[in-house]
Amino acid sequence: MPRPEPGAKLRVALFATCLVDIVRPSIGFAAAKLLEQAGCVVEVPAQTCCGQPAFNSGDRRTTQELALQMIEAFEGYDYVVVPSGSCGGMIAKHYPELFADDPGLSGRAEKLASKTFELVSFLTDILGVMKVEASHKGSCTYHDSCSGLRELGIKSQPRRLLGTVDGLDLVEMKDSEVCCGFGGTFAVKYGPISDQIVSEKCANIEASGAKTLLAGDLGCLLNMAGKLSRMGSEIEVRHVAEVLADMANEPAIGKAGEKTA
């Protein structure tokens, strides 16, 4: 979609995602703060799962039922913004194929998909946000989550905004684009393989020398936080929105009683 007209007051629906709602609501508040600072009117409509777990498990009927609820709840907004590349990718890339053979719903699915964006890419690519007013003392490294990177092209956008955070030293880890091993239901179906993948990822995180790990998907963050904790690591784990919104005063992920993978 083209950028909105300068000064336009956009009505934006925030899709918080299941994990954010249940495990880490502070990410949702950080996302809302960033959107409001960018001039958006933010609303959080009643919402359910986007259907991704069912989709990944091959349950097309349940996925369609959940997707239809999402379409009905979110289609009336100018944009839909998601603090997750995986859930954002589900709506933007897979909803149209779910209803491709349904003349009554295909157009609605396509329209919702076209105005759904991951949070940081929406701020930079659609709203043209070039900097944030935030500070974070210390070094951070960034993990490129698979869905955000490969489905939505999210790579430079978070780094661009993190580069404007006062005091933040961004250091790149080896193989930042390699999967963390979560993959939603993959971690459940193939536990030993998932553990090997996340072990290698966490070794690279440690080797970076960074004090904080950032990413844009809470599922990935929980997986890596859990492994880092079991390794005895002192590295803090946070969602990128919390740092960009200057709201990194909450205990780090895995340090506040959240159940990590």
Number of helical segments? 13
Question: What is the H/E order?
Answer: EHHEHHEHHEHEHHEHHEHEH
Structural classification: alpha/beta
The share of residues in extended strands comes to: 5-15%
Low-confidence stretches: none
Mean pLDDT across all amino acids: 94
Helical proportion, percent range: 40-55%
Q: What is the alpha-carbon Rg in Å?
A: 18 Å
The total beta strand count reads: 8
Shape: globular
Largest sheet strand order:
2-1-3-4
* Head-to-tail CA distance between termini: 36 Å
How many structural domains are formed by the residues?
Answer: 2
Describe the largest sheet: 4 strands, parallel
Ordered list of secondary-structure elements with their pairings:
Layout: E1 11-14, H1 18-22, H2 25-37, E2 41-43, H3 52-56, H4 60-74, E3 79-82, H5 85-98, H6 106-114, E4 116-118, H7 119-126, E5 135-142, H8 146-152, H9 156-162, E6 166-170, H10 186-189, H11 191-208, E7 212-215, H12 218-230, E8 236-239, H13 240-244
Parallel strand pairs: 1-2, 1-3, 3-4, 5-6, 5-7, 7-8
Helix pairs in contact: 5-6, 5-8, 11-12
Give structural notes:
- This protein has 261 residues and is α/β, with parallel strands linked by helices.
- It folds into 2 domains: 115 residues, no CATH class; 115 residues, Rossmann fold.
- 47% of the residues lie in helices and 13% in strands.
- It has 13 helices and 8 strands.
- The strands form 2 sheets. It has a 4-stranded parallel β-sheet, sandwiched between helices.
- Helix 5 runs antiparallel to helix 6, helix 5 crosses helix 8 and helix 11 crosses helix 12.
- The radius of gyration is 18 Å and the shape is globular.
- The mean pLDDT is 94.
